[in-house]
Amino acid sequence: MENGIAVYISCPSKDEAEELSKIILDARLAASVNVVNGVQSFLHGQNSVDQVEQSLMILKTQKRLLNSLTEFVQMYHSSEMPEVIALPIIGGSDDYLDWINAQTRDH
Questions:
Q1: Side-chain half-sphere of 48: how many Cα atoms within 13 Å?
Q2: What is the per-residue pLDDT for 88?
Q3: Between 20 and 30 A from 53 (CA), which of 9, 17, 45, 72?
Q4: Angstrom distance (rounded) from CA 28 to CA 46
Q5: 85: part of which helix (H) or strand (E)?
Q6: Taking each helix axis from N to C terminus, what angle separates 66-76 and 14-26, rounded to the nearest 10 degrees?
Q7: What pTM does this model have?
Q8: Among 71, 63, 79, which Cα is nearest to 30's?
Q9: DSSP assigned state of 91
């Protein structure tokens, strides 16, 4: 699968990450989602650097679904500006990459 991507999405809570994962999987916008809880994030706030604890979602999907996925996340995420970052999958198990392709739908 040449167009596989891994997408990172941060959420303010474990519950939101788990709920969003289920919605995304039900829509077949990703084949799989890992939720990593307790991620310490440091980011620029109004006048300082803020530290927050978040849950990080790592999705495996196809590049052609990124725009639909991003729009979907913007509809369901609690943040006005959710983090959605995509990285190319440059290799891996052929069987797993084929599975990603088979589990995601055409839009």
A1: 3
A2: 97
A3: 72
A4: 37
A5: strand 84-88
A6: 130
A7: 0.92
A8: 63
A9: -
Q: What are phi and psi of 26, to 5 degrees?
A: -60, -35
Quick: pLDDT tens for 28-81: 999 999 999 999 999 998 899 999 999 999 999 999 999 999 999 999 999 999
Asked if 58 and 4 touch (Cβ cutoff 8 Å), the reply is no
Helix residue spans in 10-93 (DSSP H): 14-26, 66-76
Question: Helix (H, G, I), strand (E, B), or coil: what is residue 5?
Answer: strand
| Residue spans per domain, the chain | 4-103
Give 1's contacts (C-beta < 8 A, 6+ positions apart). Answer: 62, 89, 97, 98, 100, 101
> In the structure encoding, which two tokens stand for residue 89, read together?
């999958």
Residue 57 DSSP symbol: E
The percent of the chain in helix, strand and coil, each rounded to the nearest 5, is 35, 35, 30
Any idea which residue has 């052609």 for tokens? 64
CATH class of the domain whose range is 4-103: alpha beta
